[in-house]
Amino acid sequence: MQIIKFYGDLNIFLSRKNKGKRTVCLPDSRRSIKDAVESLGIPHTEIGKVYLNKREVSPSCVLENGEVVKVYPFACKKAGDLSESSSEDYKFAADIHLGKLCRYLRLFGFDTFYSRELNDKETISLALEENRIILSRDIGLLKVSIVEQGYFVRNTEPRLQAKEVVTRYSLQTRIKPYSRCLDCNGEISQVKDEGVRGNLSAEIRRKYKEFYICRNCKKIYWKGYHSKGLDDIIKSITGN
Ligand SMILES: [Zn+2]
User: What is the pLDDT of residue 223?
Assistant: First the structure.
């Protein structure tokens, strides 16, 4: 018999029979630790450090009969530990069901891909090519073997999902409102060109003083474009 012990919240993924258990016994079989853990319902993207007989091993290590394995949750590098260089910033790809979460993340200025036109396979390819973390509530998607970076979003309510992602990656100090387009994920920057304002209603031009434009789709934003509750949303997420 092979014994697998789970730590952190990994046991939330266990199938009904084992739900909530900390230790699961499996009949002896020659397979990788990754395959054994996934067979119990846990996507490999959630697997962190793995110990076999007190020695840290790779999840691809093959289990022998009667072995005991300890599996810890994946602990990502916190954004606060990354350098200030934007090339090190986390980039995300939200799956097709997480459109509202995607808009929150863009609202905070985080590079988040989202498209209703790509299927799962295409989303995975794009994430691999652009080094993006796939955000999903689809465990099957995160179990696809070629997925390298993925995170199962625990909450179902979009604002709580946004808070969850910001907390998990310690992004609180990296929130930059008015830096990314909600529609296309392009970068937006302040615009001084009076001509741009010609496209806006007289009321907007009179009421607002700061305007921004998306460098990609040319959509125009202004301070106050987002609901007045933006500051409150940020506060509720960062606690500041
Ligand atoms: Zn845009």
Answer: 79
Helix (H) or strand (E) segment spanning residue 71: strand 68-73
Strand order in the sheet with 112-113: 112-113, 92-94, 133-136, 150-152
Centre of ligand 1 to C-alpha 187, Å, is 7
Distance (angstroms) between ligand 1 centre and the Cα of 78 equals 28
What the block records as the tokens of 154 is 């625990």
151: CA distance to ligand 1 center in Å? 26
Q: What structural domains and CATH numbers belong to the chain?
A: 2-73 (3.10.20.30), 81-178+223-238 (3.40.50)
Distance 106 CA to ligand 1 centre (A): 11
Q: Is residue 46's pLDDT more than 80?
A: yes
Ligand 1 centroid–CA 94 distance in Å is 17
Distance CA 61, CA 66 (A): 15
Residue written as token pair 């985080």: 110
- CB proximity list for 220: less than 8 A, separation 6 or greater: 191, 196, 197, 199, 200, 211, 212, 213, 214
Does the model's pTM come out above 0.90?
A: no
Tokens of 62: 């093959």
Q: Please tell me the distance between residue 110's alpha carbon and the centre of ligand 1 in angstroms.
A: 14
